[in-house]
Design brief:
The chain is 42% helix and 20% strand. A hairpin with a 2-residue loop joins strand 11 and strand 12 (292-297). By secondary structure, it is of the alpha/beta class. The longest helix has 24 residues, at 837-860.
Length: 861
């Protein structure tokens, strides 16, 4: 069903005047996309629309579209008998709370998401209009059957268990992959994209997508708007690559996330797992530069943000000030403290990952190992209703009840129950009252994305003057709190004063509970002070502001990029290039080749003429014939520049009598087959190898798949056949080790593509380019055509020499056709690129064909 707002957009596109209701809506949201690529402000007076657009541009704020599975809205059917709904903000929603960090004066926020209520199709248009006008919310309506397959199906049966490290080893353990549920997931993401397109101004607006329900949404938006400013934050864990690789649609989800500009995670572990998946599954490596982690994805920079979300300080402090909270605290003080009992508190959702049963077993163990606590310590476990449904929830509930019953039967006595299980929904102020009174808070989840319970507990324990009186504390009394938290939750790294535990180790958790009770008052106060300082300064506003700031920084170069899309379906991605960096056109270079008479051609070998993945690196007969054809053209001087040794190049290119060769990155150079090799730099004794070889051998023995190549003047440690993560880690260590060992030697140690190389100082491929151009100049041959192709960092030296020679006009004709070309779309000093070695081969064969025709014509004449 097409909503009214979308119908109006279609009316606008066809030239029809908008309805009055739509005009009212646009006063709230002035920028509306009417037709693809056309943005306009819509005013009551159509004659003033252009003027309005110009004048408003100077006062328009940044606009952020926040997208999540659910809107921060509560909907209730009217109770007075009239049709329709009443709506109010959901004050507990993170989406609403994060606005505090953005600033209402600076940023306009629009929400896109679903309502918790199922709205009848006949009422959807009215609800949409009300929410847009009153709350700036754009509801997404999903048929109940589709929503069930999307949310309770793919999200809760596939993604949620897998992201929490549960493999579907049997139908009872997570859900086996179901293609129809995946299709429902994709369909819902597409519906969300359609709703966003109704209100987005793609050139100006920012879009912030939340959580795993909408992981393919970035692809739909990027496909429609190549330069959309798009952030994504994952609120759940991201599993290790060994777990994630089991997902049948693993590549589709990774590529969809990489269509974002900024991807956020709560912890470094989650980000590390994501980056490892990108490396192992897509072959995309990351780099850390000036404090930012980023990946290059088809010319686009995708930044990784690591920052745990915080709590809403103002909301929690206002709840602490409520008289209801004070009254509930007084009731709990009478129930526990005045009866000589110390409260331990657990607050968890009733699901399999929150570790409630493990916590109860630890409480049982505490009472067994430390009988002195019997009758004195009470564990209050608040079990919030589970968000999902299923057999596992019932099992957790049954196990929890039976464990509580056993503990209370064993250790209970009249007036004393060791465990109090509260499984009914509590109001927020009631939960806060429990925080205030609890001596220690226990969070023993076996896996959780973030978990803000410890943060809420710390702030609640800080309290206020009125609560201090109820607790019997003096205003000057330092506050205290104790936390026992699982190592497997997102907030654990930020709570350095907490007692961290492995929740599966029941004895260790019991010991931690005892330690929390036994610690001195001064120690508890110091830990509380440390936690309070962090939690109060890293609230939800700080988190939102930091994320949006990084999103702005990441997207600032969008306007300076040329973008176009490639790929189909969920394999779609955008190629983004600098305005001066473009793909080399076959027609362009062939045309220049034909009309020039003095040509210099420099070709890298590995990764350029020969794919890096090839096992047999020797050139094919077709490559030899192509090079000979180019060399037979009297207008050409052709060089192959390689990292290989002289012996290897002589063996491979022995049939090319006029081909110039440069070995070991230009350390040795030969203009033709019948000429002697010369050295480009003075070669010192290679005594340094005696020091380098044992170090490289050590790393080879400890890194399976790595090898050593010993050349005349250089040594190379290669790890292209090793595990990519371990190989990269070892390469960093080896680089540092060699730099230390060879600090006083006349060599340089450099990282290359899957290798670490030690070579003489001053040696570079740039020397080869300089030598070739100088030789041609000395012979009176000023090139009017220069082609230089390479694929890695070592080739950048050639590009730099050619670029500087053009600028100076000394060795290259000012009117020369110059083509510095890299392999793959990546940052480079070259002005052109080709995708891979297949395109390089096609280009060189095309040039060889032109030369062959000219040679044949010359011979005929």
């Amino acid at each position: 069903m097409v909503s009214r707002s979308y119908s109006n957009l279609l009316d606008l596109a066809s030239g029809e005047f908008p309805s009055s209701s739509f005009t009212r809506m646009t006063r709230q949201i002035p920028r509306i996309m009417t037709v693809a690529g056309i943005i306009s402000d819509i005013d009551d007076d159509r004659s003033e629309s252009v003027c309005s657009d110009i004048s408003s541009s100077s006062v328009q704020h940044d606009r952020l579209i926040i997208v999540a599975n659910q809107l921060p809205i509560k909907a209730h059917r009217k109770t007075d008998g009239s049709r329709g709904y009443t709506f109010s903000w959901d004050e507990n929603s993170l989406l609403l709370q994060l606005k505090d960090g953005l600033g209402d004066e600076d940023i306009d926020v629009i929400y896109v998401g679903c309502l918790k209520e199922d709205i009848h199709p006949n009422e959807q248009d009215e609800v949409s209009q009300t929410l847009l006008e009153t709350f700036k919310c754009v509801p997404t309506f999903l048929p109940l059957e589709l929503f069930t397959r999307f949310y309770h199906g793919f999200c809760k049966q596939h993604l949620w268990p897998l992201f929490h490290y549960m493999l579907p080893l049997s139908p009872d353990l997570g859900g086996r992959f179901n293609r129809s549920l995946w299709q429902a997931y994709v369909s819902v993401n597409k519906i969300f994209a359609d709703r966003i397109m109704e209100v987005i101004n793609p050139e100006d607006d920012f879009v912030w997508i939340h959580d795993y329900h909408l992981m393919v949404l970035p692809t739909f938006l990027r496909k429609r708007f190549n330069r959309v400013k798009l952030g994504f934050f994952l609120h759940s864990p991201f599993p290790s690559s060994e777990i994630y690789k089991t997902l049948p649609v693993r590549d589709e989800l990774l590529r969809a996330l990489l269509n974002s500009d900024l991807i956020g995670f709560h912890t470094f572990d989650y980000a590390r797992h994501f980056l490892s998946c990108c490396s192992r599954l897509l072959g995309i490596s990351y780099e850390s530069k000036r404090g930012y982690i980023s990946l290059e994805y088809y010319g686009r920079t995708v930044t990784i943000k690591i920052l745990p979300v915080g709590i809403h300080m103002n909301q929690l402090q206002s709840v602490l000030n409520l008289p209801e909270t004070e009254s509930k605290v007084s009731e709990l003080v009478n129930q526990f403290q005045n009866q000589g009992k110390t409260m331990l508190l657990g607050v968890d959702d009733l699901d399999i990952f929150k570790g409630i049963s493990l916590k109860l077993l630890a409480m049982e163990q505490l009472l067994i190992q430390h009988p002195e606590w019997q009758g004195k310590v009470v564990l209050v476990q608040i079990a919030n209703p589970a968000r999902g449904t299923g057999k596992d929830v019932k099992e957790v509930k049954t196990e929890s009840y039976s464990t509580v019953k056993r503990i209370n039967a064993t250790f209970g006595r009249p007036g004393y129950e060791p465990v109090i299980l509260i499984d009914e929904p509590l109001k927020f102020y009631e939960r806060v009252a429990y925080y205030v009174v609890a001596e220690c808070c226990l969070v023993t989840a076996v896996r959780d994305g973030m978990n803000l319970i410890p943060y809420e507990y710390v702030i609640s324990r800080q309290g206020n003057e009125r609560l201090d009186k109820v607790l019997g504390l003096q205003p000057s009394t330092p506050k205290k709190s104790m936390l026992v938290v699982s190592e497997f939750i997102g907030c654990s790294p930020s709570l350095s004063g907490a007692i961290r535990v492995n929740p599966w180790n029941i004895d260790a958790v019991a010991d931690a509970m005892d330690c929390a009770l036994e610690l001195s008052e001064a120690e508890k106060q110091l830990r509380h002070e440390k936690h309070y300082k962090y939690v109060s300064s890293h609230d939800v506003g700080y988190w939102a502001h930091s994320f949006f700031q990084d999103l702005e920084r990441t997207c600032k170069d969008h306007v300076r990029r040329r973008c176009w899309g490639i790929g189909f379906g969920l394999s779609f991605r955008v190629v983004a290039l600098d305005l001066n960096f473009r793909k080399l056109s076959m027609e362009h270079i062939v045309s220049a080749y034909k009309r020039t008479t003095t040509r210099a051609i420099l070709l890298d070998y590995d990764g350029t003429l020969m794919p890096q993945s090839s096992i047999d690196k020797s050139p094919s007969s077709k490559t030899i014939e192509m090079l000979n054809t180019l060399c037979r053209d009297k207008n050409n001087m052709v060089f192959v520049v390689s990292a290989k040794s002289r012996e290897t190049l002589v063996e491979w290119f022995d049939d090319c009598d006029k081909l110039g060769l440069a070995a070991e990155h230009g350390c040795f150079l030969r203009l033709k087959r019948d000429e002697e090799w010369e050295t480009c730099v003075q070669i010192e004794e290679c005594g340094w190898k005696q020091n380098a070889r044992p170090v490289m051998t050590l790393y080879t023995e400890t890194t399976d798949g790595s090898t050593i190549e010993d050349k005349e003047t250089a040594m190379v440690w290669s790890y292209e056949d090793a595990d990519p993560d371990f190989g990269t880690c070892q390469a960093k260590e080896l680089l540092d080790h060699l730099e230390s060992v060879l600090a006083n030697e006349p060599v340089t140690v450099k990282r290359g593509q899957s290798c670490v190389e030690v070579k003489p100082q001053g040696v570079s491929k740039g020397l080869v380019a300089k030598r070739l151009l100088t030789t041609m100049h000395d012979r009176g041959m000023i090139p009017d055509f220069v082609l230089c192709i390479g694929d890695d960092r070592s080739d950048e030296d050639m590009f730099e020499v050619i670029t500087s020679s053009v600028a100076s006009g000394e060795l290259i004709s000012p009117k020369a056709e110059v083509f510095a070309c890299t392999v793959g779309n990546k940052p480079s000093k070259a002005k052109y690129y080709l995708d891979d070695t297949v395109e390089i081969g096609r280009l060189m064969q095309g040039l060889a064909s032109v030369s062959e025709q000219s040679v044949n014509v010359f011979a005929f004449e």
